[in-house]
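Sorry to interrupt, but I need a hand with the structure work. Could you write out one complete protein record for me, on any chain you like? Just paste the record in under my message, thanks.

. . .
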Amino acid sequence: MLKKLIAATAFTLIPFTSTIAQTNPGYEAGVHYQELPSAVTTSDPEKVEVVAVFGYPCPHCANLEPMLSSWAQQQSAEDLDFKHLPVVFSRNWEPFARAYYVAELSGKVEETHQAMFDAVHVHSTRLRGVDDFAGFYSDYGLEEDEFNKLYDSFAVDTRLKQGQARLRAYQITAVPAMVVNGKYQVTGSMAGSNSEMLKVVNYLIEKERAELSE
């Protein structure tokens, strides 16, 4: 059943539960998705890992997020490991990535992720220095002193460096992008649209599930 997605986007949510055999979409590597030259190790070899690569300053990422959130809620946690990964394309993007990692370490991603997109793209909230970000997250129960302590911490530095290394291995040059099981990269431009990107991701998930079951 089609459901109208009520958000700051005109996208319509479509079912994403069809299997390879049911859809026979004819997706091709190098056309609808890119096969990475070397597979990147995933966190859990027993699950299919899907990584959504994003940047809070990216308007296309903001448009995708409500659809992506609905898609993620439909997935089975038993055999699929879904996660986000912030990208840093310039010095201006690094504070957003650091803020995301602070939220991740504090268990605040679920309640702040969409809110941060809204702050940037709907409310035009001024978010430049650490004090601006600390003020934003304080509205969600993260004390400013605690935010400031984590922002420049070893833990956030480590996650930032590890994330950048993973992004290089994924060969990310644009966002939004999604990486399936460390093997395939998909973008909206390659697939044709954000909704088509999620269809391609579903196809690749089923492809990887089939391999895991062999």
Remarks:
- The longest strand covers residues 48-54.
- Strands lie at 3-4, 12-13, 34-35, 48-54, 80-86, 177-180, 184-187.
- DSSP finds nine helices and seven strands in the chain.
